[in-house]
Amino acid sequence: MKRIYFAFILLPVLIISGCITQFVPDTDEDPNLLVVEGLMTDQPEKYVIRLSRSMPLGRKVTLKPLKGCWVYITDDIGNSFPLNESATSGTYLTNPLTFQGVVGRKYTLHINTNNATETGYSYQSLPMELKAVPQIDSLFYEKVTIKERTEFSGPKEGCQVYLNTYDPGGICKFFRWEYFETWQFRLPYIIVPNNTCWISNTSNNIQIKNTSVLTEDRVARLPLHFISNETDRLAERYSILVNQYSMNEDEYNYWEKLQNISEEVGSLYDITPSSIPGNIFCIEDPAEQVLGYFSVSAKTSKRTYIDENFRGLVNLYSECESDTIYGGRPIPDLNISRWVIVDQPYAMPPYKIITERRGCADCTVRGTIIRPDFWVDR
Known about the structure:
Layout: H1 2-18, E1 34-40, E2 48-53, E3 70-75, E4 80-82, E5 84-85, E6 91-93, E7 106-112, E8 122-125, E9 128-129, E10 136-147, E11 156-166, E12 174-186, E13 196-202, E14 207-210, E15 218-227, E16 237-247, H2 249-263, E17 280-282, E18 290-296, E19 299-306, E20 321-326, E21 339-344, E22 351-355
Parallel strand pairs: 1-18
Antiparallel strand pairs: 1-2, 2-6, 3-4, 3-7, 5-6, 7-8, 7-9, 8-17, 10-11, 11-15, 12-13, 12-14, 12-16, 16-19, 20-22, 21-22
């Protein structure tokens, strides 16, 4: 009787779910728009311009890099700086030995798609002034209690990273930040060959601030990044590098609209990326939509390390041990689908503990054993 009952319950659910189809609304959006991502600074580094084509609404998001373009940057005193396409299709790079941005100069991005598309249109950005940006005053963190101690479990702690900055000259009114995090982690098994690794991630959220409505250009205790207890970021040593950029009001409005898209639940009536005007246009057809922004800004950076102990961190290796092999019995598929993580040859009887999870025996599954150049020991 129970089986018959559950069959009657499940049948309507299966019928309803089987009738669900994806709804893709009709829009006037061109499914093949040019997308431009670019940033240049005043630092002696390679400036990266990425070109791609957008996908139709409702299609799975995939990258459609645009290769074979002619890309260059000009300044307001007549200089021209070509970009070379890298091995990564659709990515164009400057030469840091011959080109470095200068505060106060205006720069224009130029793109010609002659070799990349049939239309062969030309695009360019508005002239963008490279504005100065102040130094980051301080980068600091505070422990955060995620869960208090209970009768059945201990406390759990996370970490909130904050930033302070100030422009005493009152020049920079609009700020943007991005961060790069790197953390060291160790496997709990010392006999494995790759025991210690590093992982690096780039921020994927938008951090901006408008100080034009304040009495002074000061940003205090900006909550830049929260680190939870659900990863091993805080288990050994953690480092965060923050880059600070200046913007004009138009670029701030652009990033603010993108921020609204990324933080709010999307619907048919929310802002869509194609409705956000950037600073790039098509010369032959000014009515053509171009997505993206060519950002030009000075850059200042600051790094801090976190070495404190945090309580209640998740144990990522609690399910590593899969079997115990006693004596000298051979281990089938050793180092293929099974790995030794504990070896006790002098125990009575001798034994080995194996795992079927490679990540428990080799930290390079998640990270790299190559120590970062900037990494400083405690």
